[in-house]
Every structure is written in C-alpha cells, then in structure tokens.
Amino acid sequence: MIKIQFLDKSQRDQIGFTYILDKLQVMTPFGEILKRNLKPFSNKSKTSLMVELNNIEKVVKNYTLETTLIDNIEILFCRLKDISNSLKRCENNSILDDVELFEIKNFTLIINELIESFSLLNSKLNLEHIRFISLDDTLELLDPEGRRLPTFHIYDKYSPNLKEIRKIKRTLENRILSSCDEKEILSLKEERLKYVLLEEEEELNVRKYLCSEIKKYIVDFKINIKSLGKLDLTLAKSKLAINFNCSRPIISEDLNIHLKNAINPEVDSILKGKGKAFVPITIEVKSGTTIITGANMGGKSISLKTLVLNVLLFQMGFFLFCDKAIIPILDFIYFISDDLQSVHQGLSTFGAEIIKLKQVLAHAKDKNGLIALDEFARGTNPKEGGFLVKSLCIYLNSLKSISIISTHYDNIVENSMVHYQVIGLKNLDFTSLKRKIDLNKARSVEIIQEHMDYRLELVSNKNSVPKDALNICVLLGLNNEIISISKKFYDESLKKGD
After folding, report:
1. Is 373 helix (H, G, I), strand (E, B) or coil?
2. Which residues, including other chains, have CB under 8 Å from residue 204's CB and lie 6 or more apart?
3. 57-84 burial string, b = 16+ CB within 10 Å, else e?
C-alpha cells in the first residue's frame, strides 16, 4: 500500500507552501512543534477540520475587539519554555535538578495567568477543543512560602532536618570568617564539609519527593501543553488570514474544486518587489481531466501552483488566499513538474516524471485526490510527447480523482474534458504593442510580460489554435522568414482542423 502523500518538501517549496509557513508566526515551543508537524486532515477527521476552521473564523471576526486579551496571551506565550523533556524524565522516575524544577514552577505560574486571560477571551469566542487545567497543587508544592515569585530553590520548609543542617553550616561559616587561627579554620572547614554532604543528601531526598509528587500531575501538564500548542497555532493561522485577507473555505461533498480570484502569496510578493501585480486566478475543476493550455510565458505553471497551494492549505486547516473556495477533503495531492529530485539522482527529467507517475496511478486506483501535472513529458520529442499526454489525459479522465494538466501540446483535449486557456495576448492591440517594443527593445520581454493577460478562460475544443508563441516571436524580432514559414504551418493546421 502506497503511503498517502501530500507533496514532499521540495514540491512544497515549489508551490509556495514553505513561504506560508515562514509567515506563520507561532510564539511557543509547543506551537512550533505543531507547525513543523502539520498533517492533512482526512475524511475521518472532518469534524476536527470543521473545529479548526470555526476557531480561526471566531478569532478573525473578533480580533479587533479582543486585541488586548490576545496581546496579553501572546506576552505570556513569549515567557514559556519547553518543559516536555523534564516531564518525561519525571515520568521515568529521574530526579530533576533545581533548574528543571524552577522551569516547571515558572510554567505553573504562567499557566495560572494564562487561564485568567483565556477564560475572559473564551467567554466571548467559545473556542473548541482548547482547555486549560489549573496547576495550583503543583504550584503550592514548588512554592511552599506562597510568594509566587519566578524563582526556585530547595526551601527549608521542605525538611526540618534540612533546616537544622543549614543552620549548623551557617554557624560554622560565620566562625570560619571570624577566626584568625589557621588550625582552627582548617578544623572548621573539615567540620563544615560534613554538613555540606549532609545538606546535599537531604536536598536529594527532597527532590525525589518533589518529583514523585509532580508525577501525579503529568496528565494535567500534557493537557495544558497540547492546548497551548493549539491556541498558539490557531492565533497564528488567524493573524495570517487577517494579514492576507484570506477567506474561509467551504467543504465540498463532491469531487469539485472551485477557486475565485486565488493568488500565490510568494509569487505576489516577488512581483510587488518589481512594481508588478499578481493576476488572480479563477478556476473550477472536477472529477476527471481538466487541461490548461497556452504559450510559454503565459503563466500556466503559476496557475497550477496556485491551485495546488490553496488545496494543500485547505487540507492543513488554513483559510485560503482567494475570495472564495469550495474544496473537498482529499486522500492525496500529487504535483509533478520538471523540477524533480530524481533528476539530481541521475534520471532524466522524463524518466523522473515516469517514476513519479507510476506512484500516482497506483494510488489513484482506490483513492480520490488531486493530480496536477505541469507540462508533463516536455522532455520528449513533440510528437511522442503529444501522444503520451493525450493518452494520459484520456486515462485520467476515467478516474474519480481530479486531474489537471498544463501543456503546450495541441490536439490533447477531448469533448468530455474541461479546457482552460491562458488569455495571453489575444485581446491586445498587437500593432501598438509591437511599436512599444520597437521603441525600447532592451525591455522587450518585460513589456510582453506586463501586457500578458494571465487569467484563465474556459474554452471549447473548437477554439482556434492560440498564436501567443508565434506572436511573442514576432514581438521579440525573430527572423521574418522563419515567422512566414511558421504562419503557413498555422494556416495549414486550421484547414485540417488540427
């Protein structure tokens, strides 16, 4: 049985998921662990996904009203240290040192403060599956003097015997300081050493006792740690949604994906750095095969990555980077592009794609997911590549999974398939654009990109072959004789109905 996959690290980097994680600012070590180990929700955990989205929505809607309380909670988050290892040692009957006991005491102090702020916040938001348990009993244990200070040592109150030992040791130390007789000082130091050893032995007994008592409350600590991570991650996801104006996805009961005005934040950020804007993508795909066509430079790959990114984020319980999203819970997401790790392992691009495709197809036989192929088989000769892609599209169209393929090959789309085309340059005044480029040839590629319409439009299979590739060649000043020959082939293709 092939392990369910939702993209490897390299693929997540490609689509912009790693960029999103970098923007997800958790504040506790427990939230960081959840962030590093994000797992996709499944149909079996649909209720948990709903809770996750509900909690984010509650925070997003009330964030401005409850900023003070949320700020207070986050200040407390910043003071937390990970005590998990100390708790584990305690469970295994190890004896904790003073630093570990101090950190546990400090944790209990912070939790008690947090409970107060969270109770106020949750009385208004009613966040689900997040609850904190008072650690008063542990605090009383580690703070026998009741001073509630973030400090710790083995207090005299823990043991009358320890108190007496320390008293005698202090008396000896005072005598050492006041004596001028070297022999007497040496004798006093030897006497003091006996009490130092007695003190260490008694402190060890006290620490054994403290650890045995703390062990009784380990379950309460674990519940609090789990809730700390959840609350931290929920607030981080909510702030991400606010900062990027994300929308709550709707869970589809059918194998249909609909995204309205979706963006890829990483690409958007790069474009903004160059003074440009990302063109939002609107697309609807369903069970079977959907094909995206268009010339190179037309943004097909970005469209595909934007779709895959938002679907993956949905599976991970995020609000999405679009105006509206309707997405089903999937069993897997596969994304195959020409940037495969297998290429670096000695395989050709095409060979690496085939190895990955075998895994995809084996998995798709009994699972429902999203299969996204970016310019599949571009590394083969055009005729063979076209045949292979068409065959693959026909086969994928017979499966329940959602398959979407970007390609520059012609004659791929069958009547039963959905076909999107990058609008590209077709609605532009070509003569005017050519004039702009002729006046500034050094910026020719940049000018074309600025005028390229990267939106997708739903087209019928009867649409004429797009000429964006040919037009780009003309705009960039390719030899006129080559252009003329190429135009003849275009015309012949139209006459044949290819």
Report:
1. strand
2. 95
3. ebbbebbeebeebbebbbebbeebeebe
Spatial CB neighbours of 73, under 8 Å, sequence gap ≥ 6 = 114, 117, 118, 121, 231, 235
Residue 124 carries which side chain, given as an amino acid letter?
Answer: K
- Distance, CA of 264 to chain centre: 14
Task: Supply the pTM of this predicted model.
Answer: 0.88
Q: Which one is predicted more confidently, 379 or 282?
A: 282
Identity of the amino acid at 319: F
Closest CA to 375 of 347, 341, 348, 336: 336
| CA–CA distance, 127 with 70 (Å, rounded to integer) | 13
Residue 467, pLDDT > 80, answer no
Mention every residue, 6+ apart, whose C-beta is less than 8 A from residue 291: 393, 404, 405, 406, 407, 412, 413, 417, 418, 419, 420
Tokens found for residue 317 = 């319980």
Q: How many residues does the chain have?
A: 498
Ramachandran angles phi, psi of 336, nearest 5°: -115, 120
Distance CA 453, CA 426 (A): 9
